């Protein structure tokens, strides 16, 4: 049985004071123990978040990292730094990083390998844009992204990875995918992993859906057999919404 994981990607929101506020509110909420809950604040709020989350069941993740341990990479943050702060997860290859910061599949693969080498669990984002969807390229594009991201990993690493299928046209638009459509692509991702690493491994990998997930539609995704949680952007910025997403069964 895969434990579902719901992660909040705060993007470039929430300075230290706002982080304190949001986490205080989340800590006051009762969260479903059936779900693994993770928050991913911006770098500058990570250490504050780490302190506030001590003793809670909420895990900490970062939104990006460089693949090197240290070096002359101005403006970058290394996996060792994230580990030292207390991160367990790191989002890799979010479409906004691919789109605005030129992250390639090769860079994503470097980062995924480096995350594992530093005992961080990558949440790897894949997904097509609207044009690719209209051109019927979703399956080939996602196949390519998944295969490249996982290239050179061991079976032990692959079984711990989290993949987020995030159709770009659904991110921040208020237009989410249909549960069944997302399930179909996520099944494809699981089949790709089964082909490359074996069925047993593929059955252990948690694959989330992301893209305009809200309290009103989370159930539709969580009811799908292949979907193991969600990566939530906008709706993770308010405790009441994120709490309602995590507690969607109530
Ligand atoms: C995201 O940033 O990963 C995301 C899914 O954003 P939103 O939920 O706002 O669409």
TrEMBL record:
Signal peptide location: none
Active site: 94 (electrophile), 166 (proton acceptor)
Keywords: Cytoplasm, Gluconeogenesis, Glycolysis, Isomerase
One Pfam entry name: TIM
Stored SUPFAM superfamilies: Triosephosphate isomerase (TIM) (SSF51351)
CC terms in the record's Gene Ontology section: cytosol
CDD domains with a match to the protein in the record: TIM
Catalytic activity field: D-glyceraldehyde 3-phosphate = dihydroxyacetone phosphate
Binding locations of substrate: 9-11, 172, 212, 233-234
Primary location group: cytoplasm
Biological process terms in GO annotation: gluconeogenesis; glyceraldehyde-3-phosphate biosynthetic process; glycerol catabolic process; glycolytic process
GO MF entries: triose-phosphate isomerase activity
Pathway terms, separated by semicolons: Carbohydrate biosynthesis; gluconeogenesis; Carbohydrate degradation; glycolysis; D-glyceraldehyde 3-phosphate from glycerone phosphate: step 1/1
EC code(s) of this entry: 5.3.1.1
Location in or out of the cell: Cytoplasm
Similarity field: Belongs to the triosephosphate isomerase family.
Role of this protein: Involved in the gluconeogenesis. Catalyzes stereospecifically the conversion of dihydroxyacetone phosphate (DHAP) to D-glyceraldehyde-3-phosphate (G3P).
Subunit structure: Homodimer.
PANTHER family, A to Z: TRIOSEPHOSPHATE ISOMERASE (PTHR21139)
Name under which the protein is recorded: Triosephosphate isomerase
Highest classification ranks of the organism: Bacteria, Bacillati, Bacillota, Clostridia, Koleobacterales
Gene name linked to the record: tpiA
